[in-house]
């Protein structure tokens, strides 16, 4: 039995990548950046073996706070520090933030205790907003955690994004498709390209 478990641990993998930053214009004066989180795994801990979602920095802060509640005396990995002078147009700052976010997720995913938190799985593999993640994790939605993940509209396949359909959000009376995008990712228009063609850094768009 021990040899079987040892072989399983050697072959099991979880690969996470934070990439492809996008600038979103909230209104005339406010913008924000979100990041693509692509996950590939053969771990039995995950219902979907490939997935791709978009999250922003403040949502990572929320996730760490949630995990902290379950971590007890365990020391959680740090997020990249909030920078009051963070510039959305500074490629170096954005690159460093993505590396920090990816390092945070890698540490979390290699901590077995944290993998039992359903909010982590919804954060990584569903399109639900933070508010809906909280409600779903506490059983206050008509769909289960597994259903929310399975209905996610994005799937990561061999480096490309395939958008599929998903069922309606049972709590929405005005929409007939989708479980809802992040409440912090407004869709008042198409997201703006993060870099102009003249200052795009090709290294930044690789899996960091």
From TrEMBL:
Its topology with respect to the membrane? Peripheral membrane protein
Gene Ontology BP term (one)? intracellular protein transport
Q: Where in the cell is it found?
A: Cytoplasm; Endomembrane system; Endosome
Where would you say this protein principally sits, based on its record?
A: cytoplasm
Chain residue ranges for the region called Disordered: 158-202
Q: Where is the composition biased (Low complexity)?
A: 171-182
Q: Which UniProt keywords apply?
A: Cytoplasm, Endosome, Lipid-binding, Membrane, Protein transport, Transport
State a GO cellular component annotated for this protein. endosome
Q: Which GO terms describe its molecular function?
A: phosphatidylinositol phosphate binding
Give the family from UniProt. Answer: Belongs to the sorting nexin family.
Q: What is this protein called?
A: Sorting nexin 10a
Provenance organism: Seriola lalandi dorsalis
């Amino acid at each position: 039995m021990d040899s079987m478990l040892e072989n399983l641990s050697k072959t099991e993998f979880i690969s996470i990548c934070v990439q492809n930053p996008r600038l979103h214009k909230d209104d005339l004066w406010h913008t924000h950046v979100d990041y693509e989180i692509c996950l590939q795994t053969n771990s039995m801990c995950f219902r979907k073996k490939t997935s791709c979602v978009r999250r922003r920095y403040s949502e990572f802060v929320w996730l760490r706070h949630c995990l902290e509640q379950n971590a007890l005396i365990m020391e959680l990995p740090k997020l990249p520090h909030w920078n009051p002078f963070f510039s959305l147009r500074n490629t170096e700052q954005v690159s460093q933030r993505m590396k920090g976010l990816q390092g945070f997720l890698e540490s979390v995913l290699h901590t077995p205790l944290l993998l039992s938190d359903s909010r982590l799985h919804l954060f990584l593999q569903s399109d639900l907003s933070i508010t809906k993640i909280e409600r779903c994790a506490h059983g206050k939605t008509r769909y289960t955690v597994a259903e929310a993940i399975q209905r996610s509209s994005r799937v990561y396949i061999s480096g490309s994004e395939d958008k599929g359909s998903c069922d309606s959000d049972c709590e929405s009376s005005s929409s007939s498709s989708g479980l809802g995008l992040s409440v912090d990712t407004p869709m008042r228009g198409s997201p703006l390209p993060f870099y102009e063609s003249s200052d795009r850094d090709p290294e930044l768009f690789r899996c960091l």
